[in-house]
Design goal:
With 204 residues, the protein is mostly helical. It contains twelve helices and no strands.
C-alpha cells in the first residue's frame, strides 16, 4: 500500500535505480501520500471531478450531498430526475456516468470491495462503468486502493514531468511513457506520485 511509510520506501527504491528520481527528491522532497477511501463515493467523486477544477468539483459535490445525503448513495441518486441533478451542477453526460455507476453498484455487478488482485483485471471491471476510462480506473486503484504498480501513462502531467526529469527532447507519448515505466516495476505508482509532486499538480 502506498501509505506514508510504503510510499517513502517505494520512492527510495526508485531513487536507487533512477538518478533522475533521486535528484527530484533532493529538489522537492518526498511526496505526501494521496490516499482516498475505497468504494462508490470516491469513484463517484472522480466522475464529478472530470474536466473541471478542484474548486468546481467540490461545489458540485456539496450540492449533491445536500440533495442526496452524505455519500450520495446510489439508490438516492437513481431516484432523482434530470432537473434535480442538473440543479446541482451535474451535466447530462455526467448524470449518465453517475447513473451507470450507481446501477452497477446496486445490482452487484461491480463490487468495489472485492476487485481482482490483478491490476489489469481490476481496470477491466472499472471501465464497465460508463465514463470511467483507463485513466480514471488507474487513478482510483492508485489512490483508493494504494496499488503500488499502477502506471497512469496517459496522464499529461506524468508525461510532461517524466520527460523533464529524464531530460528528454520532447514530451513522451503515452506509449513511450508506458515503456519508460517498465524499468520502474513494481513501484510505478510511486513514480507517478513523485512526478505529480514535482509538477505540483492536484488530482482527485
Amino acid at each position: 500500500m502506498l501509505n506514508e511509510t510504503g510510499l517513502r520506501d517505494a520512492v527510495d527504491q526508485l531513487a536507487a535505480v533512477e538518478p533522475a528520481f533521486a535528484a527530484a527528491i533532493a529538489r522537492a522532497g518526498y511526496p505526501a501520500p494521496r490516499v482516498r477511501e475505497p468504494g462508490y463515493e470516491t469513484l463517484l467523486r472522480t466522475i464529478v471531478g472530470q474536466q473541471v477544477s478542484v474548486a468546481s468539483a467540490s461545489a458540485v459535490w456539496t450540492r449533491l450531498e445536500t440533495l442526496l445525503g452524505k455519500g450520495c448513495a446510489p439508490d438516492a441518486l437513481l431516484a432523482q430526475d434530470y432537473d434535480a441533478l442538473r440543479g446541482c451542477g451535474l451535466s447530462r453526460q455526467k448524470q449518465g456516468y453517475a447513473r451507470s455507476l450507481a446501477a452497477l453498484v446496486l445490482s452487484g455487478e461491480l463490487d468495489l470491495g472485492n476487485l481482482p488482485d490483478d491490476d489489469e483485471a481490476a481496470i477491466a471491471q472499472l471501465v464497465h462503468v460508463k465514463g470511467i476510462g483507463r485513466w480514471s480506473a488507474e487513478i482510483y486503484l492508485l489512490f483508493a486502493e494504494g496499488r503500488p504498480d499502477i502506471w497512469p501513462a496517459g496522464d499529461l502531467a506524468v508525461q510532461i514531468e517524466i520527460g523533464r526529469l529524464l531530460k528528454l527532447p520532447a514530451r513522451p507519448t503515452e506509449k513511450e511513457t508506458r515503456a519508460l515505466g517498465d524499468g520502474w516495476r513494481p513501484w510505478r505508482g510511486a513514480a507517478a506520485i513523485l512526478a505529480w509532486h514535482h509538477y505540483n499538480t492536484e488530482v482527485i
